[in-house]
Design brief:
The complex is a heterodimer of chains A (about 325) and B (about 180).
Chain A: H1 13-42, H2 48-83, H3 85-120, E1 131-138, E2 146-149, E3 162-164, E4 169-176, E5 181-185, E6 192-197, E7 203-208, E8 213-218, E9 231-234, E10 246-254, E11 257-262, E12 271-275, H4 280-290, H5 302-315
Antiparallel strand pairs in A: 1-2, 1-12, 2-5, 3-4, 3-12, 4-5, 6-7, 6-9, 7-8, 8-11, 9-10, 10-11
Chain B: E1 10-11, E2 14-15, E3 19-20, H1 23-39, H2 55-66, H3 76-87, H4 93-111, H5 117-137, H6 145-160, H7 162-177, E4 181-182
Classes of the chains: A alpha+beta (about 325), B mainly alpha (about 180).
Chain lengths: ~325, ~180
């Protein structure tokens, strides 16, 4: 097809000037974008208020989407359930038998635990969630793995609070708006979480790989004690998360730890709870110690790497 | 005449007598659709990998290709600012990249002024893949081989989606210019 002739400015001074101004403004846009980009890479929280307003607007729309999503998942599960009802029934019956035995064992352990704790004079701290909310959206086009939560500063959600589903840890609050918040998911490649093995105290870090799996890096290197199927739970080091919440299951062993699958997949959750920061005093002290630019709570691994060594030593 | 064929006095934009396009619609549709394209991917929960290419960027390129001269050269900056607010990229990345894209299209069009599906597709495809990689580089995520592997489908999708989106934009353009206003 022939080119449109409208782009030729000819001898018209007005057309020439408007073409020139267009280029000038577009060039200014590039320079402005570069400056803003440099600023937001240097100070990631600089534009949090503006983004908070935007996510407040998006969140109500996302709530409708979230309801539809959980509804349709249930519907599909129902259909799939009919096809595998028989063998699933048998498998479930076997599992229930085993679970009953384990439950009895757990009762015994709980009783013993209570006895020992009362012996030590420890008070069992009940963490009450700050808010219950839905995950209403995520950054589906970006390389970062953030999600939007339908509760914000008005509901008491603050920076750094843990977001957990009924299965385990989902992520941590990164920015808050009035009625929405941005959550850094565990799968984000900048997310680092101190964990330990559920059955003993092998401590490690769970880092997001960016592809939906977590890399488990052991703190004490040597003989790798991890086995496939081991459950990793939060260790409570660093002060953000309460200890003992499920995080991931080891799927593959590597020389320095393992590759783990998430226990609580954000896309499969319906409601999530926002829990207060476990030990605000410890976190505040860390923040004061660090006092460096770019102190986004989880973007830099240094605060968490510095913390667990001292904290873990104190705890265990 | 209308009794024989009710479309006798109308063209693809509707009836021609005492009708005119609505100015509001004619000016707002490109911007609104590009902003909706930025918003739509937010509604998906992507916990494992990016699911969609940047629809807002593809719509911007398609509007630029289907209707050259409709969007001003500087339109990339404000639309990119809106995209940055919801896309999860650091603020400023789309302002910069979308502005560069508008300038680059202008330069390509000056050098190769002919039009055609294959040439447009090549231009848009090349720019979409470059944008995908540049956005990944400046997203703040550490660029691991695993991350590249899971974002590759995004690049392929952005390459393949152009003909579909261009058809959609052509339809939206007919809606934009349809004679909705009645002149009495």
């Amino acid at each position: 097809m022939a080119p449109p002739s409208s782009r030729r400015s000819g001898f018209s001074k007005k057309a020439q000037y408007s073409a020139f101004t267009g280029y000038l403004l577009a060039g200014a846009g590039v320079v402005l974008g570069l400056a803003l980009l440099a600023l937001s890479l240097w100070q990631p929280s600089a534009f949090a208020p503006v983004r908070g307003v935007a996510s407040d607007v998006v969140a109500p729309v996302g709530t409708g989407g979230a309801v539809a999503r959980s509804g349709s998942q249930g519907f599909l599960d129902n259909i799939a359930g009919y096809f595998r009802a028989g063998q699933q029934n048998a498998a479930l019956r076997r599992e229930v038998e085993i679970a009953r035995i384990r439950l009895a064992e757990a009762d015994a352990v709980t009783a013993e635990n209570r006895r020992l704790k009362s012996l030590l004079g420890l008070k069992e701290g009940e963490t009450k969630p700050v808010a219950m909310a839905r995950l209403v959206g995520s950054t589906a086009t970006s390389g970062r793995r953030h999600a939007y939560l339908s509760a914000g500063a008005n509901n008491g959600v603050r920076l750094g609070m843990a977001v957990v589903s009924e299965r385990g840890v989902v992520g941590r609050v990164l920015e808050t708006g009035r009625n929405s918040a941005r959550v850094l998911l565990l799968t984000d490649s900048e997310s680092v979480l101190p964990v330990r093995r559920a059955k003993d105290n092998v401590i490690a870090f769970a880092e997001g790989r960016g592809d939906g799996l977590l890399r488990i890096r052991l703190v004490n290197l040597g003989v790798n004690p991890l086995k496939i199927g081991d459950m990793m739970v939060t260790s409570g080091a660093g002060g953000y998360y309460r200890p003992g919440v499920a995080v991931a299951v080891i799927a593959k062993i590597t020389p320095d730890g393992g590759i783990a699958r998430l226990v609580a997949e954000p896309s499969a959750t319906n409601f999530v709870a926002v829990e207060p920061v476990f030990q605000p005093a410890a976190v505040a002290e860390l923040g004061a110690q660090q006092a460096a630019p770019g102190a986004e709570p989880s973007a830099s691994p240094s605060p968490t790497t510095a913390a667990p060594r001292s904290d873990a030593a104190g705890e265990e | 005449m209308e009794r024989l064929d009710h479309r006798a006095r109308s063209d693809m934009y509707g009836l021609r007598i005492n009708r005119a396009p609505s100015p509001l619609r004619a000016h707002s549709v490109p911007y609104v659709t590009i902003m909706l394209g930025s918003l739509l991917p937010v509604l998906f929960i992507a916990d494992v990998m990016p699911l969609l290419p940047s629809l807002g960027f593809l719509l911007l390129l398609s509007w630029r290709m289907v209707r050259p001269g409709l969007l001003p050269l500087w339109a990339g900056a404000p639309l990119g600012a809106f995209d940055d607010l919801v896309s999860g990229q650091p603020f400023g990345s789309a302002i910069m990249l979308w502005s560069i894209a508008m300038i680059v299209i202008e330069m390509i069009e000056t050098r190769f002024p002919w039009r055609g599906l294959w040439q447009d597709w090549l231009t848009v495809g090349g720019m979409a893949v470059t944008y995908w990689f540049a956005a990944l580089l400046i997203s703040g995520a550490s660029l691991t081989p695993e991350l590249l592997a899971v974002t590759l489908p995004q690049a392929v999708l952005s390459l393949l989606l152009y003909p579909l989106i261009a058809r959609m934009v052509a339809g939206l353009d007919r809606f934009r210019l349809s004679r909705a206003r009645r002149i009495n």
